[in-house]
Amino acid sequence: MSTDLSDRIVTTAHWVFKEYCDFDNIVTKTSVILNYMTALMEVAAADGVLSEAERRWIIGFANATGAPQVVLDQLQNYQAKGMDELLKVFHIESGHVHGKYALLSLIYDGFRAAGADEELHPKEVEAIYALGKTLGADAKQIKQLYELYMEEVQLRCKRLAIIFPHGRS
Questions:
Q1: Chain-wide mean pLDDT for the chain?
Q2: Taking the model in full, what pTM does it have?
Q3: Taking 50 as the threshold, does the pLDDT of residue 166 lie above it?
Q4: Domain of 125, in residue numbers
Q5: Burial of 164 (0-12, 13-18, 19+ CB in 10 A)
Q6: Which of 2, 129, 139, 158 is deepest in the core (most CB within 10 A)?
Q7: Is residue 107 pLDDT above 80, yes or no?
């Protein structure tokens, strides 16, 4: 029997993947989802602090993309282990699925996760570049994603100012 909640989660995940990536399918393998979200946690914590805003953003993103409750629970309690551990898992020779299929989205989402506390620290940017290079991205691609992220931050501010000219409550 399918529950209304699980139907809504799948519907939401399909919408997010279509809107964000133009994919018709969602990622369902728990280990793939957990590895991706853990990588986001690590780059967001590269400045020495995984802020509550960064953790909430990553958990919200995981939830919106259909992560199972077990992944959400692990993310809620996740303690950063450092980039060295992450780079052992995510490298081009590992054949890791994210290196082959999701490299550039992982880099872009890394900027979004690390900037969720409204501060993209230089150490976080450095960590994202290290992750990208380890997975085989070149510096030009990473720079383009960084610039795109910064443009989208500015566009979000502009959009909110236009939609809510009297401020948000």
A1: 86
A2: 0.85
A3: yes
A4: 4-163
A5: exposed
A6: 129
A7: yes
State how far the alpha carbon of 4 is from the alpha carbons of 24, 29, 33, in Å.
Answer: 21, 21, 22
Domain assignment of residue 168, yes or no: no
Cα separation, 35 vs 98, in Å, equals 9
Asked if residue 38 is part of any domain, the answer here is yes
Condensed to tens digits (0 to 9), the pLDDT of residues 40-61 reads 999 999 999 999 999 999 999 9
Q: Rounded to whole angstroms, how far apart are CA atoms 58 and 72?
A: 9
How many independent structural domains does the chain possess? 1
- State both tokens at 166: 């009297």
Kindly report the CATH number assigned to the domain that includes residue 21: 1.10.3680.10
In a domain, 169, yes or no: no
